[in-house]
User: Fold these one by one.
Assistant:
Number 1:
Amino acid sequence: MNASRSRSRSRSRSRNHSRSRNRTRRAVRTGQYAALAGYLVFLGFPFLWLLSTAFKPPRELGSLHPTWIPEDPTLGNFRQAFAEQPLLHAAFNSLVAALCAAVIAVVLATPMAFVLARRRGRLSTAVSGWVVISQAFPFVLVIIPLFLVLKNLHLVNSVPGLVLVYAVWSLPFALWMLTGYVRAVPPELEEAAAVDGAGRLRTLVSVVAPLLAPGIVATALFAFVTAWNEFFFALVLLKTPEQQTLPVVLTHFLGAEGAADLGPLAAAAFLATLPSLVVFSVIQKRITGGMLAGAVKN
């Protein structure tokens, strides 16, 4: 009788413990979803407000009681923005600079990452330390010597000079990212290729590079977005309107006393965000796969 009661109490405690654990899990999951929803709202609010402002007429822009949805939406801000500033030409300059810088950074970083990931030693440690330290240098600290170097190379006020700057600035971050992806590739695959007679370059191109495709795409995307959004180097190095990039041209919507032409500025800024959004949406699966590949340990 006592044994039966003891088993009954034990089963009851087990059920209560299981219910308590399930409630805790549901509470934690609910908190996670709430935090994620709050983070999405935090990220989406500026973009949605920018989109709303881009379609508002001047009367609504000066209203003391702004609304989310324009009462009388208009495309006048977009027409005025294109009429006042060379947005298409500036966007082309930004696209050329960002694409070329991303390609150069990835092409240079891939073999370097392969060497760093496979050969551990003092040189690898020193290079890894340089990668980390280089990201801590502020732009202002390097702009004067950088300007002098480009002046001696006759690359000031030119898109090729800006491409060179962006590629060099993106290289440490690209190298750091790709090193993690290379370390996730099993070395046994390279050993098998060596047994079949493949050299280092052939192994990198035919064996390692296809497995690194998601990581290469993700790294190139981050390098592209960084160069597309960069403002300070473009402001200092580019002087003539024909060479300026889109972030610099956006500042032309500000008046002499700091007053902003809010409608055209919002329209132009909205158009400037579209390339990054399109690229992210198109290769989202590649980015996800690259992130997971870099996180796997073998």
Number 2:
Amino acid sequence: MEAISHAGTVLGVLAKDGVVLAAEKKVTGKLLDLTSAKEGGYGGSGEKIFLLNSNVVAGVAGITADANSLVNFARQAAQKHLFLYNEDIPVELLAQRLCDLKQGYTQYGGLRPFGVSLLYAGYDPHYEFQLYHSDPSGNYSGWKATCIGANSGTAQSLLKQEYNEDMGVEDAVGLVLRVMSKTMDSTTLGSEKLEFATLTVDPITKAPKAKIYKPAEIDALLQKHDLGKKDEDAEMRTV
């Protein structure tokens, strides 16, 4: 739990037509090779936000090495379900599968628990959009909006004030970015510090559509909401 409280903030908000996840990246440096994040498949740096299945995206806070192990387990569980029943795994069932594994690691000697909390943003046709949170003990709970990681107390109080059950994805994106801008350690929001994902449903095929934003898309989104970096050179010229 201590590792989680020092980890980068992960924030999830449930809207009536989608789910929004945002995460603060802690591992940054000028010498990091981020070409795969810029040009790779789903986007994201593979540090905070992961695609578990076509209908579930997860954000992690805590020990990233532990998270990688759990993400692989969750992906296998999702594919086994798909193979057996020819349908995407229900979101809560996937959370339960992971929590069963986590709980097992709390009750045997010689093993330490997984030092990671997860936020699961998912969709299934029966319960539609859902947001779950699980912690190292194996407990999990459903939320309308929640936050894990550093400064989660501040973020929770902001979410309590501003969250509205009738909000759509666009409003939820704005809310998530506003809260992140107030809780992150960094003074400026930028793609090198932020990961972002949304889960919506295609209006025609009714299939869940997960989107993990690439760095350029995150910067464009921040500019749209007036939260991106200001062009200091341009400001100097105008002065």
Number 3:
Amino acid sequence: MAAIAAVVSIGGRPAWTTRIARAALVLAAVAVLAWLLVLPLLAIFAETLRQGVAFYVAAIRQPDTLAAVRLTLTVAAIAVPLNLVFGLAAAWCMTHFQFRGKALLGALIDLPFSVSPVVAGMMLILVYGKYGWLGAWLEAHGWQVIFALPGLVLATVFVTLPFVARELIPLMQAQGSEQEEAALTLGAHGWQIFFRVTLPRVRWALLYGVLLCNARAMGEFGAVYVVSGHLRGITNTLPLQVDQLYEENFSAAFAVASLLALLTVVTLGIKRLLEWRHGGDMRAGY
């Protein structure tokens, strides 16, 4: 009882020792985050602008860098919608049906989390490369996957595959299927149920998953490094362009890296804006 009285005051409010401990823990957490996240981010922008705005603009406007930006946006524009469709379908199957192999499907969804991106790239080469399982057939039909855009898309889809599905599955499990079943008994068909019942209930989780998927797609390095061939201006994405510039032009590498950092900041800003404007709807959905 003496220990409890020392922690909690008579009025039910935390004692001063508890408040001090709580403040110390909060400050320690903020200090660690600032040291590991904020300080490196500020260092990138400081190094980027150290030689002036003119140098920064010139580094960004290099043809190879612009080609890397276009390629990164193209890969993300293909991979993210594919994972959006897959994530919705996988979450629907995992939460609305019972079937043999359900546990295996859940394990396969999580597989990219446990496989190194470099290993994922090697797997794609073994399947789609020139001497891979399908390489000869693809080459005979004039299709090039590895060291081309299709290989970059496949690698990006693989590493970002779980993000949308893993945002949706817990929410759909918590919501249950009662509303869909009620709509079915009232005569609604499948697409009506999906667009008018299911999708409005999961839209915020879906948007979170898409944001995370897009951020990872634009910043992926390991898998695309293996399957790209490092062809500057052709198969170099932004992370690969930063890696090559780091060996040649230190300041230019930081200038290009700042674009990826800006993408991270924009993604976080969109997430926080949605939470601020639609926080009530999000909490209601969950």
